[in-house]
Design a protein that fits this description.
Blueprint (H helix, E strand, L loop, with lengths): L20 E5 L2 E6 L6 E6 L8 H11 L4 E5 L17 H7 L2 H17 L4 E8 H9 L7 E7 L4 H4 L8 H12 L1
Parallel strand pairs: 3-4, 3-5, 5-6
Antiparallel strand pairs: 1-2, 2-4
Length: 180
């Protein structure tokens, strides 16, 4: 569940941070980093602050340094959470406009675009809202590894019964990369 802690220390969003670049992928502005010819890719699905969060891009760059092609799409179409203290901001309305179901539908063409570039192994990392999207992707055979770094509104019933195919080598490389 969302709590007040989710928004206590929001990032200062920056369209220019990171070692990568922004390009269009599957119709979405996407931060990309790492070797574009890699056969292994990671799709980062961000929290409500979106793809311009500097620490998220720093993590993407770090994982990319291990040889992964990392993509962080703008699933919010330029409408991330910017100021939760704005009296006109309503998180429930924002979540309705940016539902995990919509995120799931937007993620499928991103995965297809990665495969069309020759990527043979795709892992997905979901952060809060992105974790809610990831749970939906984990029920497919489109990805080989999944990790929820901090969950959003996810219930046990949503996770239970997911037949997530896991490529342990892929997951262990990812975990060792972020742990160092």
């Amino acid at each position: 569940m969302l709590s007040s802690q989710c928004f206590e220390n929001p990032p200062n969003l920056s369209s220019t941070c990171g070692a990568g670049r922004v390009e269009e992928l599957a119709g979405l502005k996407t931060y990309v980093t790492g070797p574009s010819d890699s056969k292994r890719a990671l799709l980062f699905i961000p929290d409500a602050f979106g793809y311009e969060a500097p620490k998220l891009r720093k993590l993407a760059d770090k994982v990319a340094s291990a040889g992964f092609f990392v993509v962080v799409p703008d699933f919010y179409y330029g409408d991330p959470v910017i100021d939760v203290n704005d009296p006109n901001f309503n998180i429930e309305v924002w979540l309705k406009n940016h539902s995990p179901d919509k995120g799931y539908e937007d993620a499928k063409p991103v995965i297809a675009a990665l495969k069309s570039k020759g990527v043979s192994a795709i892992g997905v990392a979901g952060f809060c809202w992105g974790g809610m999207v990831l749970v939906k992707l984990a029920g497919t055979e489109d990805i080989q590894a999944a990790v929820i770094l901090h969950p959003g509104r996810i219930t046990e019933d949503e996770i239970r019964g997911k037949a997530m195919p896991v490529n342990m080598e892929f997951l262990l490389i990812f975990i060792s990369t972020i742990a160092t």
